[in-house]
Design brief:
The protein is an alpha/beta fold and 326 residues long. The protein has two domains: 61 residues, Ubiquitin-like (UB roll), CATH 3.10.20.30; 236 residues, Aldolase class I (TIM Barrel, Alpha-Beta Barrel). The strands form five sheets. A five-stranded mixed beta sheet has the order 2-1-5-3-4, with no helix packed on it. A three-stranded parallel beta sheet has the order 8-15-14. α2 packs parallel to α9.
């Protein structure tokens, strides 16, 4: 094998001639899901990494997104995709497609979830008929999978259908609570990351499991606030805060939120976003609730960037006590 010189992030570097982008990233100890690669001034898709080879004189730029910035430059980026709204909008359980359309108009999300289901060969109306899916970044989910293999299969079908490289990994471990199977979720995440998916796994609020998913290459970690569909709201703030502090990818609180104030609370403690479905779909006025959740995440993020006041145990008067007539 012959070493050749390429330009990597503006500096010369010796690499093996003909090495694939995927192998090069592995040699550099870089997770493919966490980097955008520009090769000779062309951005390469993750599913092309394995077949794109590096030659002498090639120019490579590897970029990723970091936290920080001012409130006016406060990007929400998942897997290299910038999103304006920190509310990911679910599309299930709505009374009709018309109601869902009104909710999407009210909330103005950038990313929406879609389920992967068999084509209805008996005819009838599609669940998302009338929704212009081209307006959104689609997040297919593997809901219904009970094994890692089942989730991987659904993810591959979603990619083949042309949805996107994003995938929300859900592997049910308990039928009553619909809580995720930790081992199967981690196994599916590892495999799908290897295949170039932008993996966003749904997990419980287990801190160590969240860390393991991050280490496996997840582009975001999605801990639940409460079991799916319950709208019980935030049950374990401490664990959510710990997850936010421990993983270095966006934390998106998913499942169980009931009202917008809870979404704001998630953003206030540092979560990058929330995913909401049932709380909007089953509200008495779903479009108004969708708008309220969209406003709540903006307020919560603004509060996080502003930084809360010091928490004290001794009362301190807001007005000066000097000069009061006695």
């Amino acid at each position: 094998m012959t070493d050749v010189t390429v330009t990597l992030n503006g500096k010369p570097r010796r690499v093996v001639e003909g090495v694939s982008l995927l192998d090069l990233l592995e040699q550099l100890d870089v997770q493919p899901s966490r980097v955008v690669v520009e090769h000779n001034r062309e951005i390469r898709r993750r599913d092309d990494f394995a077949k794109t080879v590096v030659r002498a004189g090639d120019e490579l730029e590897l970029v990723y997104f970091v936290g920080g910035g001012s409130p006016t430059d406060d990007a929400f980026v998942v897997g290299g995709r910038p999103l304006r709204s920190r509310l990911i909008h679910g599309t299930g359980k709505y009374a009709s497609n018309e109601v869902l359309a009104h909710c999407l108009t009210a909330a103005q999300p950038d990313m929406i979830t879609v389920a992967i289901r068999r084509l209805n060969l008996e005819g009838g109306r599609s669940e998302l008929e009338g929704i212009d899916l081209r307006r959104y970044t689609l997040l297919p989910n593997t809901a219904g999978a009970t094994t890692a293999d089942g989730a991987i299969r659904l993810a591959r079908l979603a990619r083949a259908a042309g949805f996107s490289d994003f995938i929300k990994v859900e592997v049910v471990g308990d039928e009553d609570t619909l809580l995720p199977d930790p081992q199967a979720t981690l196994e599916a995440t590892r495999q799908l990351v290897k295949e170039g998916f932008i993996v966003m796994p749904y997990t419980s609020d287990d801190v160590v499991q969240a860390i393991r998913l991050y280490e496996a290459g997840a582009a975001a970690v999605m801990p639940g606030a409460a079991p799916i569909g319950t709208t019980l709201g935030l049950q374990n703030l401490l664990n959510l805060e710990l997850i936010v502090s421990k993983v270095k990818v966006p934390v998106i609180v998913d499942a169980g939120l009931g009202v917008p104030s809870e979404a704001a609370r998630c953003l206030e403690l540092g979560a990058a976003g929330v995913l909401v479905n049932t709380a909007i779909a089953r509200a008495k006025n779903p479009p108004e609730m969708a708008r309220a959740f969209a406003e709540a995440v903006v307020a919560g993020r603004r509060a996080f960037n502003a930084g809360r006041a010091h928490i004290g145990v001794k009362a301190v008067a807001s007005s000066p006590v000097e000069g009061i007539p006695v």
